[in-house]
## 1
Amino acid sequence: MTLDQLKMLVKIVETGSVISAAEALYRTQPTVSVAMKKLEEEFALKIFSRDQYRANLTPAGLALYERAKMVLRQSDSFEQLAHQLSTGQEPEIRIAIEGACPIPLFLRILKQCEERHPYTQFHLSVENLSGAVELLVQDKVDIAISPWPTEELQLDAIDFTHTTLIAVSSASNPLAHIERKLHFEDLQEQVQIIVRDSSPVPSDKQFGVIPEIRRWYVNDHHTKKQIILSGMGWGRLPEHLIQAELREGCLVQLEIENYPSPARLEIKVLRKHDHPMGPVTSDLWNMFQDLSKIGSVPLIAE
């Protein structure tokens, strides 16, 4: 069996006859007929029913035809991938995204890059706090998208977008019914829900953590949101994750004295300054740069 025989099989079915397939493939009719006869002999199967003028498939022939199309698609994909690799394009790009970042704009850019470079795989990981930046510093990812400030001189940064953290509780939480600015004393009997830093080397810095009150730690913002919705605590959440709940009144924004809420987070795209980039990573980086020229874009989910 050869790929050439499979191409002939598929073309016969598509065109309806051996003669038409031969013309489409720039082969002679005897060449195509002999190739199909050898294919049938090799597997001791009757692929075509030759009772009529048109080349009708037998049940076995239909099964082979469907699989032949799959094999040819895989062959084309293999050929294109080999061509891409021969030009130096990366087989994969690793990207770390901090969990507070809005995703839609990033996915729009990623889709454009994927359309230009369909045979480069993207490996995405969602990290918390300094986790995305730390993976970049350790050369475990190629690009990081993170709102957390960094003084790492070895990193290049592009302004990307921004999000806002808002302190909230559920409408059933007693905090939601205090008709004034909250004081830290009001929070003593409550639990602050905090997303744990996913960095392999967590920073000593803590953002928005109120000392000397009860805390629960979770691994992601969605779990944090569900706990707060249940009435079991309070905390700051990205606005784009809770817009609907705020509108519906399930969550209530809290005003806390001397506590930043809303707190705006500037989100940046980061790369290692001295880390060589392949053509696909460079193209993706340039897409982010082009976007930054029109200004940082806020993203709130509808």
## 2
Amino acid sequence: MKERVVGRAAVLRGTIDVPSDKSIGHRALLANAIATGSAEVRLRAPGADLASTIGCLTALGIEINRSGATVAIRGGRFASPKRALDCGNSGTTMRLLAGVMAGQGAAGVLDGDASLRTRPMDRVAQPLRAMGARVATTNGHAPIEIGGGPLRAASVDLPVASAQLLGAIAFAALGAEGETTVRLPAAARDHSERLLAWMGVPIHREGLVTSIAGPARPAARSVDVPGDPSAAAAWLVAGALHPDADLLLPYVCLNPTRLAVVDALREMGAAIEVTAVGSDGPEPTGEIRVRSGDRLGPIRIGGADVAALIDELPLLGVAMASADGVSELRDAGELRVKESDRIAAMVTGLEAIGARVEELPDGWRVGPGAPREAEIATRGDHRIAIAFAVAALAGVSGGVRIDDAEAVSVSYPGFWADLESVAAVPA
């Protein structure tokens, strides 16, 4: 592990091209891998998670050629992998690929690193079994063994509002006869529906219900994957908290299911402008600008809002620690089964930087304190590393020493370079 020390920046100024959106990138790679024809997926600064999906598809015999930011894919049928498919740290790779393999009648084993092996996988295995797939987990976790065989359409009620689970079932439904329906308990990202419909698949979401008519096969389509709103959120929080900031983020995905972090920061008083530019792909795109404003006010997040903010909650925890009052996060127990126990990691880190914080079973309660220097244990989690780098950069902390700076490579390999490009000499 490589440490990194971050201090407060005197000013924050500049334009940042954030990495291509992971959620869309995974789906674009997988859909084109099973499509009829060839396509190119353009990925700016793809992290380790997207590399895991590319590696798994290559191991399944899909023809893939990478040249810079362009990934050329020729769709085809999966071959039997010679060894377990390595999903690395990517839960999205594992869950979506389980659905894709089930839908294609492919057999193989999905595995990952020590962190991924702790994450719950029965939640994807059970609905796939209901569709007729042969899926075996290891005590509810990875490794997961997928067996080939015909699928049948099913009606599935998801236990959590998860776009990963919905996407896995949608991909599986492409190989099933009849109409499969998926009911969400609350709103979740609709990237799977947008992409597959754009590629000619009969899929539709009405409210909390998604319907897919199978069997169906996507038509290959090239896509320039827009910037990741979850990566952009780091700079939105930094700019909103810093007293002298003006940051522009061009070509970002403006899917309404991904902009809850903008709404939350605006509710706290942040000065954020969103300008739609348009897109020739399946997602709306545009630019986001954040500038310094008044001190943020407190916020309470809970209920159905949590699912839409799940990846940005660590960053919002940092914003809460700088707000003028006590903020609270509830109903976010899902954070305990991410790459780390993010509730415990955030509470420990917020205490270390001087915030007044209370750990709750499903969240935290936090208010401002006296910023101080701290050492942050990331627990190998990219979201924790980025959140506390932002805390130091914006002055919520007196400075931090991050124990594993390389953790950011999972989602944002260029994070440190972007930080240096917009941060003036520390004050």
## 3
Amino acid sequence: MNNKEIAEQIKSSMSSGRYQHTMGVVETAVKLAELYGAEREKARIAALLHDIAREFGSDRIRQLCQQSGIAADEVEKAVPDLLHGKLAAHIAAKNYGVRDGEILDAIRFHTTGRRKMTVLDKIIFIADMIEPGRDFP
């Protein structure tokens, strides 16, 4: 599936606000990839798919993670919305054919971060926070 097909498919599965946010993350991630020497296409794909599970709601996220064998730590059990990155990585692999581990990890850890983050992990993490549509301080 190419980027245009992914963008069309996610547009139909997200609210307009979430889609606008996602496209802002894509734009920001590509710019950051250029600045920091990461692969632009990996950044674009990870950014496109980073929030595909974000609007599912806590109960559905919890249920889908359990069905998919995605483990939750104590913090994620208390705040199930944090699991949307892990679930999004699972969906990216299963439904969108993403096989690149670096892309899947960037999606998986875009909210929580992790030790020894790769450049791509950091790009998606930061792009999610600073995309132009964000309105928090």
## 4
Amino acid sequence: MSNASWWKEIPAAVTVTNAEGIIIDMNQKAAVTFKKSGGEALIGRQLLDCHSVQSQEKIRQLTQDTQANIYTIEKKGVKKIIYQTPYFENGNYAGLVEISFELPEEVSHFIRE
């Protein structure tokens, strides 16, 4: 079995909640990304408290429908792709994972058959 801490230093922000929406873990990039909101001090807080009313509704929908939400954003000239998805343990909903990473100006796209 590999070391479960491999994701702590990848260059993508990873934030994890439990089934009740409490932030239970984040990697180094997420702590830096959310530094103004508290960084690692967000662990133990309710995810909904960190979002606007509109975003809270989307989060509630994700937890109800247990489907992924994937989109791109741009802030201060930096493009990112956001991948929010439920995760499961023994087939039961266990929480949400958000992975956010920066996109280069040009992204290659390949169609493979």
